[in-house]
Amino acid sequence: MNELPQWAEWLISFFIILGACFAFIGSLGLLRLPDFMTRLHAPTKNTTLGVGGVILGSILFFSVTDALSLHELLIAIFLFLTAPISAHLLAKAGLHLELKRIESTRDLRKKPEQYSDRDD
To answer: How many helices (H) and strands (E) does the chain have?
Structure first.
């Protein structure tokens, strides 16, 4: 295997470490945040950015060592399209099921009772 240029090593390392930091912060948020809605926010934002950073590092590595590599772009596109959609569906399900929230997590809908399945 050919040795990478110094600038490429630094840039690839930067993106991989940045991605790992974002993924770690998202995982830590999933563990530490108090309720479903706040826990949902941490992994959908930070982990998506984390995987994006690792994929950028991978694209750079394989593009410098071989030819231009865009296979990882398919993974990134799939991730960036599906993560927000799945988070939205999970949030709607959480609102629909009226999961317990902490006091500072507010429901800003005009009439939240119209979405309820509860028989009061």
So the answer is: 4, 0
3-class DSSP state of 96 = helix
Q: Is 80 exceeded by the pLDDT of residue 106?
A: no
Question: What is the tens place of the pLDDT at every residue in 11-38?
Answer: 999 999 999 999 999 889 888 888 888 8
- Indicate the pTM of the whole model: 0.74
For residues 12 and 51, is the Cβ–Cβ distance under 8 A?
no
- First vs last Cα of the chain: how many Å apart? 69
Cβ contacts of 65 within 8 Å, gap of 6 or more: 1, 2, 4
Residues 26, 45: contact at Cβ < 8 Å?
Answer: yes
